[in-house]
Amino acid sequence: MKDKPDTPHRSPVLWAGRMAEMPDAGAFAFQASINVDRRLALEDIEGSRAHAAMLAKQGLIPPETAAALEGELRRMGEELAAGTLAIDGGAEDIHSFIEGVLTERLGDSGRMVHAGRSRNDQVAVDFRLYLKRAIPRLRAELAGTLQVLLDQAGNHLETVMPGYTHLQRAQPVTLGYHLSAWACALSRDRERLGDALDRLDECPLGAGALAGSTLALDREATAKALGFARPTLNAMDSVADRDFALECAGALSILMVHLSRFCEDIILWAGEEFGFIRLAENWSTGSSIMPQKKNPDFAELIRGKAGRTTGNLMSLLTLLKGLPYAYNKDLQEDKEALFDSIDTAAACLEMFRGMVSSAEFNRERMRAACTGGFLEATDAAEYLVGKGMPFRRAHETAALLVRDCIAAGQRSIGERTLGELQARSKLFTEDLYPLLDPAVSVGRRNLPGGPAPEEVKRQIEKLRANLP
Ligand code: ARG
Questions:
Q1: What distance in angstroms lies between residue 40's CA and the mean position of ligand 1's atoms?
Q2: How far is the C-alpha of 176 from the C-alpha of 3, rounded, in Å?
Q3: Predicted confidence (pLDDT) per residue in 232-254, tens digit
Q4: Whose CA is nearest to atom 4 of ligand 1?
Q5: Is residue 368 part of a domain?
Q6: What is the pLDDT of residues 406-459, one digit of tens each?
Q7: Does the global pTM surpass 0.90?
Q8: What is the span of the domain harbouring residue 394?
Q9: Which of 34, 52, 285, 372 is the 20 to 30 A CA-CA neighbour of 162?
Q10: How many domains does the chain have?
Q11: CATH number of 28's domain
């Protein structure tokens, strides 16, 4: 769609009849929403087509009028797509613009389309219709991102790395396990968006301004024609509430917080101190002054953009908090916030996917980082538990071994001789040593949900099975 009209069009103001004087140009522009809701043009046309057809079927407008409206609305859709009809930026909103063009082209037939309808139910229909398309696109983006993560995870079932708590090395895990943990979160994000989509799948058309209509509208018919599961139950609720927008904004905020956390890991891993990941050069940027720099800007920016989506959610919550029922013009602010969250999440998913699929992981650095932090201490304690020692005593014994190592300048419990180990507990025998190897440790953590390679393989398969 183009911004510049081929034929400049002055859209009529739908409520001008009531006023002896109109707001001046600046005030009119302030309350207009065309520059945001122009995005709903095709949905608005679709809603009008369904409404006009229903009006004719109910005997509320002549069949010829309905045919003319149908033809003109269809043409307008094509012209908007082709760029031969430009949206008038001076119109109050997309609803005024579409009705204005209809009236300009069809005369009284155009004037008949709004019977039994209000912009209050119209905008609610348009917004929900838009989300019925946008959310599945986002879910597809998410599915693609999940595939990339799961592919990388599958490549690294045996790539041992430290797992962290408090950003301190905690226990050995694998990169495949870490990436699968990310995938679990994204998989829930995809489900959450699906849940929101199911709940918003109700058609507000026929709710009117707030109290339905005296005209014999067929709400079932318009809901069905527009592909909604059913009409909304209560007209006032249909025009007053925006919890469907909140849910979508909430699901997108959670998704963005997830991406932000993954990016924080990536940023850490890309630093010299970790050295776990090498981001592709075309997924990095340089510095204008420091010639050596290769910065993880994409990850940083995704992390930063999570602030926008959080802000959009806060805007929507705040917008609704004190609103009396039913419609208030405040609600006009709902779309800009959610559109921005949708655009932001879609762009960030695409960037995240590109960055992760092209990244290389440094197995040696990850393996090396498993030594020196006494990540094997829990294994040693559990070894003693296996030999009958109460866990709290086993914990203390392993802790004392760690202290012995530190005092002796040793980097792992495995550096202690059997005699030194037995000085702390007679239960220690030679069979402890192989268990302290990070790969062995990971392999033995094969409970459901654990990091053992065959278990992570199962987790990956389960996550894949949920994808289209
Ligand atoms: N532009 C408005 C919105 O987005 C459409 C509904 C206007 N309704 C009204 N009574 N002013 O909410």
A1: 13
A2: 48
A3: 999 999 999 999 999 999 999 99
A4: 332
A5: no
A6: 999 999 999 999 999 999 999 999 999 999 999 999 999 999 999 999 999 999
A7: yes
A8: 377-455
A9: 285
A10: 3
A11: 1.10.275.10
